[in-house]
Amino acid sequence: MYPFHPGNPSQAESIRWRTAWPQRYGLAVLAVATATVLEFGMGLLGSSHLPFLLYFPTIVLVAMWAGVGPGILATVLSATSGGFFFLEPRNSFVVRTPEDLVGPALFAFIGVFLTFLTCSGKRAERALRESEDRYRDLVEHSEDLVCTHDLEGNLLSVNPAPARLLGYEVAEFLKIPMRDLIAPEYRVLFDEYLARIKVSGADKGLLCAMTRSGEYRIWEYNNTLRTHRSYVEWPMTSRRRGGRN
Fold first, then answer.
1. Under 8 Å between Cβ of 63 and 114
2. What is the domain partition of the chain in residue ranges?
3. Max CA-CA distance within the chain?
4. What is the full DSSP assignment across the chain?
């Protein structure tokens, strides 16, 4: 799966072209042919290098771009081309002794291993990205308060719905010190909350916020301190009740 914005037809068409099987397997053939030409070039220049050296990054790049099948095809083509052109007797598939098969067989094994390793890493990366996208979508559309703030009570991030519920746009909301969003009679409790979470690293209770129009909104919170970055994560909470000042 290759993510793309459905509203961008040119990007969607580009991804469809890249993921079609002729392009994917054609890439494997082209990449191995290019690596073979470079191997010949290095030999003509008198460079001392190990045979098959350029085929390893070729296999990884093909697997990364085109997937398991093309990666395995690149491995087979690389083993065949390397054995034919660069192992003695050159330009021949003649096997003089069983030991002549050890090098290509070992190369093929490593190539297949690299293919699966690369593709599994790409799958894990894609799964993480999709999980992050789902979480971001959930947070951005939630009407519960999800935010982060530093240890001075300055907001670092907030989801849009609760900001608008309090009468603010997100950009405006983030410029307001968190203490100023608390109902005046409860601001001393907010100061105590900051002191507690600095010491204990976690805290839970009720937050009484005040809307732009003076109404009260009460959220339940259960917060944790991310000490390696010195910010407090305010997880998804439940709005309990509202009232008017």
1. yes
2. 9-140, 142-244
3. 94
4. -----TT-HHHHHHHHHHHSHHHHHHHHHHHHHHHHHHHHHHHHTT----TTTTHHHHHHHHHHHH-HHHHHHHHHHHHHHHHHHHSSSTT-----SGGGGHHHHHHHHHHHHHHHHHHHHHHHHHHHHHHHHHHHHHHHH-SS--EEEETTS-EEEE-HHHHHHTT--HHHHHTS-HHHHB-GGGHHHHHHHHHHHHHHSEEEEEEEEE-TTSEEEEEEEEEEEETTTTEEEE---EEEEEEE-
Close Cβ partners of 156 (under 8 Å, ≥ 6 residues apart): 147, 148, 149, 150, 174, 231
pTM for the model stands at 0.50
Crossing angle of helices 55-66 and 102-141, in 10° steps, is 30
User: Which two structure tokens, joined as six digits, stand for 11?
Assistant: 């990007």
Q: Which of 151, 153, 204, 199 is nearest to 180 (CA)?
A: 153
Q: How far apart are the C-alpha atoms of 181 and 192, rounded to whole Å?
A: 16
Query: Residue 194 is encoded by which pair of tokens?
Result: 């900051």
What CATH architecture is 142-244? 2-Layer Sandwich (3.30)
Written as one letter, the residue type at 130 is E
| Whole-angstrom distance, CA of residue 59 vs CA of residue 100 | 22
pLDDT in tens, 60-111: 999 988 889 999 999 999 998 888 888 777 777 776 667 667 778 888 899 9
Q: Are 234 and 163 in contact (CB under 8 A)?
A: no
Strand 215-226 and strand 231-234: pairing? antiparallel
